[in-house]
Amino acid sequence: MGVCFILIGVLGFQLSSIALAEFNYGEALDKTFMFFEAQRSGKLPFDQRVKWRGDSGLKDGFLQGVDLVGGYYDAGDHVKFGLPMAFSVTMLAWGTIEYTKEITNLNQMGHTLWAIRWGTDYFIKAHTQPNVLWGQVGDGDSDHYCWERAEDMTTPRTAFKIDQDHPGSDLAGETAAALAAAAIAFKPYNSSYSDLLLVHAKQLFSFADRFRGLYDDSMHCAKQFYTSSGYSDELLWAATWLFRATGEEQYLKYVVDNAVYMGGTGWAVKEFSWDNKYAGVQILLSKVLMDQKGSAYTSALKQYQAKADYFACACLQKNDGYNVHLTPGGLMYVREWNNLQYASAMAFLLAVYSDYLSADNAKLNCPDGQIQPHQVLDFAKSQADYILGKNPKSMSYLVGYGSKYPIHVHHRGASIASISVVPSKVSCIQGFEDWYRSPEADPNVIYGALVGGPDQNDNFNDDRSNYEQTEPTLSGSAPLVGLFSKLESLFGHIGPYHKRPTTNQPTQNYQHQQTPVLSTTTSGVPVEFLHSITNTWNAGKTTYYRHKVIIKNTSQKPITDLKLVVEDLSGTLWGLSPTPVKNTYELPQWLRVLKPGSECSFVYVQGGPQAKVSVLSYH
User: Fold this and answer.
1) Which H or E run contains 614?
2) Which one of the listed residues 471, 488, 493, 586 is annotated catalytic?
3) DSSP 512
4) pTM of full prediction above 0.70
5) Which of 111, 374, 410, 493 is catalytic?
6) What whole-number distance in Å separates Cα of residue 378 and Cα of residue 403?
7) Quick one: pLDDT band at residue 234, thresholds 50, 70, 90?
C-alpha cells in the first residue's frame, strides 16, 4: 500500500513533500524511556516498569562521605560517567522544551520529566559545594574486568571529583547546561524545583569559567573512556542555555565576547556529540537571532548561524564536498565506535533546526543549492527510519522494536538472568563464563536500547563481545526522545508498521482513538475514500482531530494524474503539491500511478467537521 500525507492546520508545519511513514515512532518513544529505567542506579521507585532490575549502588559515595546514590549507569557497564550523563540529560530536556505539546499529546510527559529528574537529582547531590562537583562513581578498568549484574556489584565504587585545584570546565559546563535546560523543562510543572536547578546551574557555570581545565586531566580515570577534546564548547554551551533559561543579557554577551576566542564562530563542524557541542551552540544562537532577542549582537549571531548552516548543509550533502560521510544505506557515519550515538544526536539537531527555519519562513542556503526546511526534516527522518529498520540489514537497532533487532547486546544486566529468576549471586568470573560467552539470546530484553550500530558499509555483527556495535549508551538514546516525539506528531498512525506497543511490560496508553471508517465514493469515478479519525486532543478550548483518508482504486485499470479537491479545511496545508486551481491538489511525483486495487492515504488535522474530499479529474 502506498502512503502519502496531508497534514493541515494547527501544527504550523509547512512541508511541500510527501513522505512514507513506515514506523510507529510512538512505540519507539515509549521503549526509549524503558531503556532509561533499565539504566537507573540507586533505589528504584515502586512504579519501575523494567522488572528485571533491582536496587543497586546504594552506598555510592559512602567512602568519600557524600551521598552519590542515584543517577544512571552509562552503557553496558556500571560506571556513572558524569560528562556523557550530563549531555544525555541536556538532550532529554531540550527535546522536552522543543516538543512539549507533542510529548503531552502522547501522554508521555510524566515519563519524560522522570527521566530528566533521575539525572538532575543526582547532579544536585554531586554538586556539594559551589566549586566542587563529583564527576564519576566507579572505575572503568576494574568494572570492565567483571561481568556481573548491578545488583551483585563487587567492583570498587570509588568516587572522583573536580574542584578549584583540580578543575574540569567541560564537565562543570555540561552539567550547568543540563541543569539550565532542565530548569526550563520543569518550569511549567514545578517552579520551585526549576529555581533550584538554576541556582546550581549558575554556580557550576561560574566554577567552570573561573577555574579552567580539562576534567580528564583532573580525573585521570575518565581519560581512557571519555576523553575530552576541549572545554571551550561547553562554556559557550552552558552560557547559551543559561541565557535561554534566564533571559539575562550577561550570558548572551559572554557567548558573543568569546565567539572568536572559544571557537564558536570559528569552528565549522560536522559532528554533534557528548564531546563536541559547537553545532548545538550555533543552532541555539541562530534561534536567538531569528527571534530578534539579540539585536545588539546581530553581527556575531549571524556568524554563529553561518556555522549552523555549514553543519546542516554538510549533513544534507550540500556543502561543496565537505560533507558528513554517509554509508551506502544512507546513515551518517562519524566514528567506528558506537556510531549511532552521533547519528541520533545529529538527526535531532537537524529536526530542531528545521523547525527554527520553518518558524522564521527561512531557507537553508548551501553551497550546492537552497534547501527547504522540510527537506532538512526529511533527512532527519531518514536517520530515524534507518535506526528503526529501513536499512540494508532490515534490522531495527532499537532493541525490542520491530521483529528483528539485536539479541546479544553488550550489556551486563540484559545478558544475565534477573535476580528474581536467579537470586543467588553471579560472581565476576562466573558472569563471563556462564553468560557473556553464551550463544543464547539475552534473557532480559533491554527495550529501547540504541546499540552502537553498523559499520561504514552497513554491516552489523550481533555478537555480545562486539562492543563497538552492540553496546548501548545513554548519549545515544537521549536525543531520540525529541526526535521520535516530533515524528510521531507528524506521521503517527500511518503506514503498515504502525501497531500498538508490544512491550511485555506496562506502558502508558496513548491518547489515540480510532473511529469507525466511513466510506464515500464519487459517482462514476472508480475511487473510494475511507475516512476515519485516528486521534483527538484539546488545546485550550478547541478540540482537534487527526483525520485519515484512504484512497482506493476500485477499478481494474491503473489511474494516473489523479487530482483531488479538498474543501472546508482550516489552517495551512502540508505535504501535498498544490495546483493552480484553488483547493486542488495532486498526488506526489513518486505516486503518479494508482494501480488496480491499490491504496494510498493522507492525513489532515483540524478542529470541527471533516473536510470534503472529491475527485476533480484523472486518467
Assistant:
1) strand 612-617
2) 471
3) B
4) yes
5) 410
6) 25
7) very high
Q: How far is CA 85 from CA 122, 302, 419, in A?
A: 10, 31, 26
pLDDT band with cut points at 50, 70 and 90 for residue 463: very high
Tell me how far apart the alpha carbons of residues 302 and 289 are, in angstroms, rounded to a whole number: 7
Integer distance in angstroms from the first to the last C-alpha of the chain? 20
C-alpha span between 514 and 520 (Å, rounded): 18
Please enumerate in sequence order all residues whose Cβ is within 8 A of that of 238, keeping only pairs 6 or more positions apart, or say none: 173, 174, 176, 177, 180, 201, 204, 205, 208
pLDDT of residue 2: 44
Cα dihedral sign, 285-29-339-21: negative
Among this protein's residues, is 148 annotated catalytic? no
Q: Give 255-290 pLDDT, tens digit per residue.
A: 999 999 999 999 999 999 999 999 999 999 999 999
Catalytic: which of 37, 60, 77, 275?
Answer: 77
Instruction: Give 600's strand partners.
Output: 551
Active site residue 471: yes
Question: 67, 121, 462, 468: which one is catalytic?
Answer: 462
Reported confidence tier of residue 563, pLDDT bands at 50, 70, 90:
confident
493 is catalytic: no
More confident residue, 610 or 33: 33
Indicate the pairing of strand 527-539 with strand 518-521: antiparallel
Q: Output the DSSP codes for 102-151.
A: HHHHTT-HHHHHHHHHHHHHHHHHH--BTTEEEEEES-HHHHHT----GG
Residue 449, CB half-sphere, CA atoms under 13 Å: how many? 32
Active site residue 385: no
